[in-house]
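Subject: design request, 267 residues
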């Protein structure tokens, strides 16, 4: 079975920190896991595997699945904006040296997205944009560019001037500030969405229930281990918490709200 934090490996130092955490969890749980070098694997390919042991998965594709993986736990980020809860947000970002100061000022321009089945990169952004639409302004942007697949590519598109604004995972953005300050300093946040449940760590149903239970216990007690304090600090984590399937209905509710408004696609 495999472990992966590919969703949040936005810098080499992050890849190392996640590996340390996942290896510790496997050892503490007594479950053999291979921490996957997943740089050459897309998230879709990763989540389609049948050997998931402890893998981060976006809550939107999780909610969309008919046969869902087993939930292990979800992260509780440490930045104050998450309120010590297992939630995250989406940040709309522009170039820091550019003229845009508000999300409304980007309307009529170009927006980038990673993939349409990403919550932070699309679903949350689409739901947030609903409030700005009207009968006289059905389309907010002149051009919608994507899919860029990865959110680091969305950031680069913003920095390169290919687009005016992009939507990215807020927790990953916080991690970027800690692990790649030079890039983070070149970005400005012009809006932030409401909070939604954090991407959970999941396991395939093929993994035995006893192994899943031990992995879950290792995750939710990691913050009690003194040897993990530095790793959790590097990952901006307070702890992990157990979560239930019903929490992820929010993603479908936001999707349905966009569909009801005739706004299935960002435009």
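Subject: RE: design request

Done. Sequence follows.
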């Amino acid at each position: 079975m495999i472990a992966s934090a590919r969703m949040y490996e936005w810098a080499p130092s992050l890849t190392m920190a996640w590996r340390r955490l996942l290896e510790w969890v496997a050892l503490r749980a007594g479950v053999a896991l291979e921490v996957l070098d997943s740089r050459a694997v897309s998230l879709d390919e990763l989540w389609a595997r049948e050997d998931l042991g402890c893998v981060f998965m976006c809550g939107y594709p999780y909610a969309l699945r008919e046969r869902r993986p087993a939930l292990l736990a979800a992260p509780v980020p440490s930045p104050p904006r998450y309120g010590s809860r297992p939630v995250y947000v989406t940040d709309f970002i522009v170039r820091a040296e550019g003229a845009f100061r508000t999300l409304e000022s980007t309307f009529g321009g170009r927006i980038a997205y990673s993939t349409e089945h990403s919550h932070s990169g699309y679903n949350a952004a689409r739901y947030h944009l609903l409030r700005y639409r009207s009968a006289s302004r059905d389309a907010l942007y002149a051009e919608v560019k994507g899919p860029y697949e990865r959110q680091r590519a969305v950031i680069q598109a913003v920095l390169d001037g290919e687009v005016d604004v992009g939507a990215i995972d807020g927790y990953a953005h916080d991690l970027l500030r800690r692990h790649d300050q030079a890039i983070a300093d070149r970005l400005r946040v012009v809006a932030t969405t409401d909070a939604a449940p954090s991407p959970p760590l999941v396991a395939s149903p093929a993994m035995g229930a006893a192994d899943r239970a031990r992995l879950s216990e290792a995750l939710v007690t990691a913050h009690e281990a003194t040897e993990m304090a530095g790793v959790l600090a590097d990952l901006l984590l307070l702890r992990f918490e157990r979560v239930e399937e019903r929490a992820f209905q929010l993603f479908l509710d936001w999707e349905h709200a966009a569909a009801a408004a005739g706004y299935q696609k960002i435009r």
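The radius of gyration is 18 Å.
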